[in-house]
Design a protein that fits this description.
The structure is a single chain. This protein is mainly alpha-helical. The chain has one domain. Helix content is 88%, strand content 0%. The mean pLDDT is 87.
Length: 106
Amino acid sequence: MNKEEILAASRKENKNQDIVEAEYLKQAGRVAYTVGCLVCCLICALQWFFTKTVNWGCWVVNFSILGTIFLVKSIKMKKRHEIFVTVCYYGLCVFFAIGFAMSLRG
């Protein structure tokens, strides 16, 4: 294969996406996920400190994000551990969603 054939095959494989941009987006996603989790924890800690109540909604959002990350990862990697972690995170998401619904009822 010559240089042009290799480049054409690479473009076809990557569907004309910019690999550098894709890597930056992946890094940005990791940072956004970490910041989001920290903000959820901060909100919950502040609410507990000031009102002695639990912010169920933040935990629903947090565990739905974690569950989705591991769902995609488990689909791509097909590992039992990833599937188990996905089920655990979605289980916690459902648990906190029930708590959230109950808190709305009073």
